[in-house]
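Quick one:
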Amino acid sequence: MKLSITSRPGYAPPVEFVERKGVGHPDTICDHLAEELARELATEYLAHTGAVQHFNVDKAILAAGSVDIGFGGGEHTRPSRLVLVGKADSLQDWRPDPEELAKTYKAKLLELLPDATPEAFDVEIWLNQSSADLASVVTTRQEDVPLANDTSFAAVSLPRSPLENTVHRVEQTLNSDAYRSQLPIGRDIKVMGARIDGAKQVTVACPVLARRVYNRADYDAIIAEVERTVGQIAGQELGAGTIVKINQADQDDSPYLTLTGTSAEAGDDGQVGRGNRFGGLITPYRPMSLEAAAGKNPAAHVGKTYHAVGFDIAQRLQAETAIEESTIRLLSSIGRPVANPEAAHIEAVGEVDRAQVERIVAECLMDWRGVRDRLIGGYYELY
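Output:
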């Protein structure tokens, strides 16, 4: 592995945009369920063989349905359709059952959207055998370091900026069970933060549950409370003067109402990889990969695993060295052991001790089993 270490100034662009799509957004729904399926398959392979066999289930689409809706409720006139697609090898004593998995993942979808009813969604799962050439790349023995099943790179930066913290915290607060128990809002929360020459703005799209709101006055009161909450968080993170805007597309005769809590019921389709990047944000002013981590193999797909390794490296650099900020880039190629990437590049802010950095990078890369197990356990924020 070629390791490059360079210095850079602290992250402080004069203009910054940051976006986060909440767990009920159609794209995030696809990411979430594809990743749930990947974790389940990996767990089964480990239980049966002691190693994660070749698979990737990182393709999913959620096609929007249609509704007839107004204050007080409505009905579904056409269900939304979720299709999860991928490759998964069968074993002699176990094979994934797409029909049973479809039932399981419809139940998981309804858990994710507790305001939805079964008629709102149809779910399909398509799984086929992997191609022989790809399957042969991935080691099947428990003791062996997995070989990369793709040529890919990862880019991770830590810590978050104040605007990144604000956007992340706003979505997490509005989507929390505690907050939603107080207000009848759905889970398709989308937050956009902007900082331009000192001016700060946070814009939020927040669906209101039609069955629990009966007139425009009640709707407006809910939006006002959401605006107050967002303003309070923005003030704590960014200081005074942040402009807050909620549901800007509202018209007198068309408030943002949903039956299920997601725009997927009528207005918006979803797809894996179109939303949040690793770390849970969309950050166009940061180096980032367009790789969709959700649904990929947690042992062999470096487009996923190297984001986790990069996160581990960045956390340890902050905790154990004089480095204050860092950007980690890792590059590998298909068939190469995941513990030995083609190249690594560390951009650091602060004093650098090269020997210390080399040790941390090497230890994090050799912890491939720990990375695999933490990915399967849901430790990292992939989307």
